[in-house]
Amino acid sequence: MSDKPRKFIILTASIGTGHSQAARAIAESIQKSHPSDSVSVLDFVSNNPLSIDHIIKDSYLKMIDVFPAMYDHLYSDSQSSRFGVLSQYMLSITFKRRMRSLAETLKPDAFIFTHPFPAGAADLLKADGRISMPLLGVITDFDIHQLWVDPHLDAFCVATPDLKDLMETYDIPGDMIHVTGIPVRHSFYEQAAQKKPFEKGTVLVMGGGLGLGNVTDNIERLDGVEEISKFIVITGKNIDLYEKVAALSEHLHHPVELHSYTNKVAEIMARSEILVTKPGALTCTEAMVIGLPMILVNTLPGQERANALHMKRQGCAEWVKRGELAETARRILKNPEIREKMAAACGTHHPDSAKNVVDVLYGMVE
Q: Fewest beta carbons less than 10 Å away: which of 138, 200, 201, 269?
């Protein structure tokens, strides 16, 4: 390896926070293992409210919130279809100029992508011979979407062996696909290693970094469960939701410990007996590292269904409808053996997924 310090750029997109958290986990691992090298995490989505990507982001969030069935239909139709290939190409063309400008301005030794928008644009540029640095795609769900089928990227990191097999069906060579797990920040491994006892009856309620998923409705349904001693609620970046939960908490039977966006999620998870959340892949992976059983509810259409199915099959989560939420929580809290079985299903050994991604990256630039 060259003695010259390396420069890496991780491109994510602020459409949900899982992509950004995975990017930070990778950056943290690079800084820890290769302190002489530099790494920056950049949001590829423009802050300009009139930009096309901002419009795409707002449309996406509005669709999954107000018209989930429509989004589910579009997601399914865009898998391995002419519509999906065309959609991918149009999005990549849209972002191609911005990607080229970043490459020419920053000149990194490699790009790492935790979101398909910049990855697709870079794929087109590499196909045209406009850029030459190594390109690494890191897929942060338990599903492969057509938007990630970029044959000119140099390597991909995926969560499971099944996803590697699935990606090969898109004609991506197997030697380009590395099973690393989804990158999780080091603080979760630290909390897991401490093996602190959880606070009995404490239920953590989350809606992802954007605070989606009918959080207040979940709390109201759970408030009648006598086995609950307290709620911890994390509302993420959703200020409206924070205010709604704060107002609601004054009328609940159970006390509420309320947090907005916080960097103490690992510590909070370790204190909790169960987690109630929508099945974002990163949140679920973090919970598995901690050994925290999950009740998955308010599943968003598209990739979250694949995430929920994976967790259910693993045995570490119950996947329920809203009407089943309270009874499911009551059953788990009343029967410690069920909780212990679910915690055991989370697994006792979790590879350092971010380090695995970094190992793949350095294998590309040596």
A: 200
**Total Cβ atoms within 10 A of residue 154:** 18
Residues in the chain: 366
Contact of 81 with 146, CB cutoff 8 Å: yes
User: Torsion angle, CA of 269/275/279/283, rounded to 10 degrees?
Assistant: 0
Contact 234, 304 (CB under 8 A): no
* Alpha-carbon span 227 to 297, nearest angstrom: 19
Query: What would the pLDDT profile of 87-135 be if each residue is shown by its tens digit?
Result: 555 666 777 888 899 999 999 999 999 998 899 999 999 999 999 999 9
The tokens of 318 are what? 């119950």
CA pair distance 92, 151, nearest whole angstrom: 13
CA distances in angstroms from 126 to 60, 105, 154, listed in the order given: 28, 16, 10
What three-state secondary structure class fits 300?
Answer: coil
Residues 33 and 103 in one domain: yes
**Rounded Cα–Cα distance for residues 154 and 145 (Å):** 18
**Contact indicator for 205, 294 with CB cutoff of 8 Å:** no
Measured CA to CA, the distance from residue 275 to residue 207 in angstroms comes to 11
Q: Structural domain of residue 116, as residue ranges? A: 7-183+351-365
Three-state secondary-structure class, residue 205:
strand
Determine the pLDDT at residue 63. Answer: 47
Half-sphere exposure of 235 (CA within 13 A, CB side): 19
DSSP designation for 183: -
Angle at 21 between CA 37 and CA 321, to 5 degrees: 160
Question: Is 36 domain-assigned?
Answer: yes
Quote the CA–CA distance of 210 and 212 in Å, as a whole number.
Answer: 6
Residue 2 counted as domain residue = no
State how far the Cα of 177 lies from the Cα of 167, in Å rounded to an integer: 8
Residue 232 backbone zone (phi > 0: left; psi -120 to 50: alpha; other: beta): beta
For residue 179, what are the β-bridge partners? 158
Distance in angstroms (rounded) separating the CA atoms of residues 226 and 214: 21
What's the CA gap between 39 and 24, in Å, rounded? 10
Same-domain status, 200 and 179? no
